[in-house]
């Protein structure tokens, strides 16, 4: 790797994909604007699946979980104008929506509605079938005091603390079992964990330190770059 090229990763899982790099990549986890999220004082009800609707995100498996548990669920997300996304939606999602009356579909929710759905849900399902490098939805759920049931793929076990902020499971059967004990997860514990680990301020500080090290390593005169920011 050229001496003037540096890689950064957002999780240990992602960094593992670049273990052959010397030196290894820096790791700065993603962060969110915690002040935008809060827990609801009212009763929580139903499940939530939130994200990009495509095969690798496993929305059809969330619908299977809803069908097996009988719990109400909101499926909220966007189907992008790619042929394989559209075909997946018509093939796997539409028939299941027709067969599962306890599921409501919301297309393209805006940021305000996403925050509302997160804080009103009993639990958030993350049924990704690929190795996720991170998960903003899992972070936002924790900041909203909402447990997450996540498949054990990629960085999800780094973000969802099994038994503390939710449960990390191995597929649909595991998710169904986890939902039987989801009330053990306390909203205040989720929020405390999010405040400690998912701050965008901490993320920005990490990048400021990283950029400072890179500039010093490449011997740029201080007059050619701004001074590190204070957060």
Explain the layout of strands and helices:
Blueprint: E1 8-9, H1 12-16, E2 26-27, E3 47-52, H2 59-69, E4 73-78, H3 83-99, E5 103-107, H4 111-120, E6 123-126, H5 136-143, E7 148-151, H6 156-159, E8 166-169, H7 172-179, H8 187-197, H9 200-217
Parallel strand pairs: 1-2, 3-4, 3-6, 4-5, 6-7, 7-8
What are its keywords?
alpha/beta; 2 domains; 6-stranded parallel beta sheet; two-stranded parallel sheet; 9 helices; 8 strands
Summarize the structure in words.
- By secondary structure, the protein is α/β, with parallel strands linked by helices.
- It folds into two domains: 8-30 and 201-224, no CATH class; 35-197, Rossmann fold (3-Layer(aba) Sandwich), CATH 3.40.50.2000.
- It is 40% helix and 14% strand.
- The chain contains nine helices and eight strands.
- It has helices at 12-16, 59-69, 83-99, 111-120, 136-143, 156-159, 172-179, 187-197, 200-217; strands at 8-9, 26-27, 47-52, 73-78, 103-107, 123-126, 148-151, 166-169.
- A six-stranded parallel β-sheet has the order 5-4-3-6-7-8, with helices on both faces. A two-stranded parallel sheet has the order 1-2.
- It is globular, with a radius of gyration of 20 Å.
- The model has no long low-confidence stretch (mean pLDDT 92).
Profile the largest sheet: 6 strands, parallel
Mean pLDDT: 92
Instruction: Write the H/E string, N to C.
Output: EHEEHEHEHEHEHEHHH
Which percent range fits the helix content? 25-40%
CATH topology title of the largest domain: Rossmann fold
Tell me the domain tally: 2
Helix/strand/pairing class, anyone?
alpha/beta
Order of strands, widest sheet: 5-4-3-6-7-8
Helix count equals 9
Distance between the amino and carboxyl termini:
32 Å
List segments where confidence is low: pLDDT < 50 over at least 5 consecutive residues.
none
How much of the sequence lies in strands comes to 5-15%
The CATH C-level class name of the largest domain: Alpha Beta
Shape: globular
Radius of gyration, taken over Cα atoms and rounded to an integer in Å: 20 Å
The CATH homologous superfamily of the largest domain: Glycogen Phosphorylase B
- Please tally the β strands and state the result: 8
Q: What is the architecture of the largest domain at the second tier of CATH?
A: 3-Layer(aba) Sandwich
